[in-house]
Amino acid sequence: MATTRRQRKSIWMSELDDLVRGACGGFLFGIPLLYTMEVWWIGSFVTPPIMLVAIVSTFIVIFLLNRTAGFRKTKSIKASDALMDTIETIALGLICTAIVLLLLREITPDVPLDEALGKVLFESVPFALGVALANQFLSGSREGTDNRSDHTAQPQDDQLNATLADIGATLIGSTIIAFNISPTDEIPMLAAAISAPWLLAMIAASLLISYGIVFEANFAKQPRRLQQQGIFQRPLSETVMSYLVALIAAAFMLWFFQQLSFDDPWTMWLRYTLILGLPAAVGGAAGRLAV
Amino acid sequence: MSQFEAPQNQDRQAQKPPRSIAEWVTFSIASLILAGIVGLVCSLWVGKRHHQPPELSVTRSAETRQAAGQFYIPFQVINSGGGTAESVQVIAELTIDGEVAESGEQQVDFLSGGETQDGAFIFTRDPQQGELIIRVASYKLP
Fold this sequence. Notes:
The complex is a heterodimer of chains A (291) and B (142).
Chain A: H1 2-34, H2 37-45, H3 48-68, H4 79-103, H5 113-132, H6 134-138, H7 140-145, H8 156-181, H9 186-193, H10 196-221, H11 223-229, H12 233-256, H13 266-290
Chain B: H1 21-46, E1 56-60, E2 65-67, E3 70-79, E4 85-96, E5 99-111, E6 116-123, E7 131-140
Antiparallel strand pairs in B: 1-3, 2-3, 3-6, 4-5, 4-7
């Protein structure tokens, strides 16, 4: 009885794990385009036949990718499996894209259906590509760090070094992703439309996505250490810490690219930084995976 | 690939070939979502709305607000037609004693069918003293 229950739990856990991995890959690949207003505009005027073309071409590309990569760890690359994964990949891309566009206030209840559909569809293309490539992105670290999990007891010194390395990796990752976005006009544009509750939602989403990526990394990196210390303790503090690092990096980049100056009111600093904080946090989490 | 497959096998036994319930559940949800999206796109295609040209109108959406010696005249521009209009130009002219005393212009980047956008014109003269005309002057197709 106990074993079947555990097995059933592990079925759901591994499925969730696969989906989270896919979503994380999507965020890594898709977030720079989610912050591109030209893509929102395409969504505004695209006609339904073109939308169908977008779906079909995405489907073909994702199917081909899923035959080799995919977001699952299983190596079954039968055509039927790849087909099922393709549908899941695109659906995952659509959901995550819709959530982010909702957060960015690009989709609101006032936006007509066809415009919302166009936006979600076109933004979900790079996102779905990221989902399909998730295993390629995120399994790189698995290879090297799996053996590290054998050393359960690490000396104190190493832990300090690991923390510093984590901060450095977060900084590098968030700089790389947010660099693309910080000099563009999207940040002021988004900041103009967003209200305080949505900023809070933005913080929550940044933490959640960043946690998802960290959790993924830890799941592969140090499963045994995690079990000893309690699953939630370490990733949570790490997530908060890396989010703060990402916010600092975002604020610095906005200042560097003259989007913010010291004369600007603090509310502007807060808005801009939090909006750039989402891609920065995603980049930061990716950076920690790479190290 | 195969050398690091081994340690994960313990917690991944369930994922072996016949697909698990969990995978079927996510697959069916995913299929529903994708089918829903395709269905929505098709219904848009069949629906006549996007074949129609844009139909633009502008209304004064609220009372004129006065602050610091200026008059704020809120307006709302609506596309009640089908297609999307780009660069929608809204013009306001305040005519006092037979001549245009002040004018203002605003552009809306994109206005899809059924979409509304709000804005305001600002005048230094009281619009009550003369005749105010707000109209949509032009747009282009994307």
